[in-house]
Amino acid sequence: MDLHRTRSGDVLLPLHRPPAADEWDRDRPVSAAASGGGTIGRRHFLKLAGLGAGALAIAPILEACSKSGVPIPPSLRAAARSLGGEKSDLQLFPGGQEFLSSRAQRFPFGITDIDGMQILGPPARVWIGQGSSAHGPITATVEKYRVLDEPGDPTGFYVATLPMPPSGLAWTMVDAQGIYGIAPVTILDAPTTPGIGQRAVSVATPTPGHLLGVTSMCTRKPVCPMHTVSLDAALRARKPIVFTIASPLLCTSRTCGPVVDEVVDVRARHLKDAIFIHAEPYKGNMATILSPTATAWKIPSEPWVWIIDRTGVVRARFEGPVVASEIEAALRPVATP
Questions:
Q1: Which positions ≥6 away from 295 have C-beta within 8 Å?
Q2: Which of 94, 160, 265, 292 is the most buried (most CB within 10 A)?
Q3: Closest Cα partner for 135 from 165, 169, 96?
Q4: Given a cut of 50, is residue 34 above it in pLDDT?
Q5: Helices in the chain by DSSP H: which ranges?
Q6: Phi and psi dihedrals of 179, rounded to 5?
Q7: What is the secondary structure of 177-204 as a DSSP string?
Q8: C-beta separation of 260 from 277 below 8 A
Q9: pLDDT digits (tens, 9 = 90+) for 213-242
Q10: 126 with 107: CB under 8 angstroms?
């Protein structure tokens, strides 16, 4: 999107019309607001989205960016001006879709330069703005994955805790390495998928010999060891559960493989503390139709990891990129007798 001057002030107007249904497979440009600045090819954008949330979360962001006349919050505009001569050459990828109103929340994100090269390591600061108010700068920390599935995959991500504004459209801004970028996020009043303090959805998940309508029990190579127990049976066992929905093979965000590996790493150290379960989000060999598990849990994106206590209540949840240390920290109080 371009920044245009109008009588009412600065507004974001789309560079490109919204894509028709038959255009999604083409290597078409993606608007700058969707990518955080600049214009990149759609296939390249889907790979870079591995720095943020999964394919299910991309469409709403593109839709939000395609709407003309969205005002930039004045305070966020002022923050951008305070950066002096920095260029808006940073591409920002928010790592989630379920940002909940009026509370502090984990905000994972990835950033690249204008050429699509990942930025990871330099200090990064975050702002979030809505209407006439904004918060920031807030310092982000760097988290790195243990193992990379493929060369060129994102090696990690940034994460910060942001004070989320009331529900509605909000804008995030990040500056790092002498450049900055802006991206929209939608703030919700209530979670779509089970939230903290809510009961886990009891549903059967695929196990060996019982695929329950999905083509593949696990698309990880080799198959992960988190399919021996179905989720509904685990909930009846009244033990802590680490439940993951992610597709290492089909996840266009390129974060699902690393996230599943991070959960497997936690499992190796906490076999006696919890039951670890993984389910694929898609029914077939294409990322088009949700699996029965993903449908029951109403996931808006992928990957997801939930920490569930002995009574079947969600005590922590992670959307998008997450590392073993974050999962362990959330599991520890739940696993304590």
A1: none
A2: 94
A3: 165
A4: no
A5: 32-35, 42-48, 55-66, 74-82, 231-236, 256-269, 292-297, 324-335
A6: -135, 165
A7: TTEEEEEEEEEESS-SS--TTSBPP---
A8: no
A9: 999 999 999 999 999 999 999 999 999 999
A10: yes
Query: Parallel, antiparallel, or unpaired: how do β-strands 275-279 and 241-245 relate?
Result: parallel
Domains, the chain, ranges and CATH?
Answer: 2-188 (no CATH), 231-335 (3.40.30.10)
Token pair for 151: 């060369």
Using DSSP bridges, classify how beta strands 99-100 and 179-188 pair: parallel, antiparallel or unpaired: parallel
Q: How far apart are the C-alpha atoms of 205 and 212, rounded to whole Å?
A: 7
Give the pLDDT band of residue 263 (cuts 50, 70, 90).
very high
Query: Which two three-digit tokens encode residue 189?
Result: 């009043």
Whole-number Å distance between alpha carbons of 108 and 32: 20
Distance of CA 61 to the CA centre of its chain: 12
Strand spans (E) along 52-123: 70-71, 91-94, 99-100, 104-112, 118-119
